[in-house]
Amino acid sequence: MQNHLAIDLLVAACVGADQGAFMSALEMLLKDFASRYATGDEVYMADVFLAPQIVVSTSRFNINMSKFPTLNRLYESYKILPEFEASSPERQPDAVH
């Protein structure tokens, strides 16, 4: 439970922050966590916030995900979920590209 809270607080504090620093902080926090998603084998709020941040970091800010193997693994897990795919900006008719 404490890991859930730490990740939720970190994500909330870093939204809008320098993307490289944000990704580095998340990688350090999650690198030893051996689960399918950020805080366990089920999707939690941390994942709901984390997945779009990874997408933005890779597409808009051209962050090289090879520097963040844990986050990259999480992102690969998110991409296969229909809910995450359906919520992508490309699938939203009112999203500005």
Summarize the structure in short.
The protein has 97 residues and is mainly alpha-helical. The protein contains 5 helices and no strands. 58% of the residues lie in helices and 0% in strands.
Query: Beta-sheet strand percentage?
Result: under 5%
CATH architecture: Up-down Bundle
Q: Can you tell me the number of structural domains?
A: 1
CATH C-level class: Mainly Alpha
SS elements, strand count: 0
Radius of gyration over C-alpha positions, nearest whole angstrom: 13 Å
Q: Spans of 5+ residues with little confidence (pLDDT < 50)?
A: none
Alpha-carbon distance between the two ends: 37 Å
Number of helices: 5
Q: What portion of residues is helical?
A: 55-70%
Secondary-structure-derived class: mainly alpha
Question: Which descriptors would you attach to this protein?
Answer:
97 residues; mainly alpha; Glutathione S-transferase Yfyf (Class Pi), Chain A, domain 2; 5 helices; globular; Glutathione-S-Trfase_C-like; Glutathione S-transferase Z2-like; Glutathione-S-Trfase_C_sf
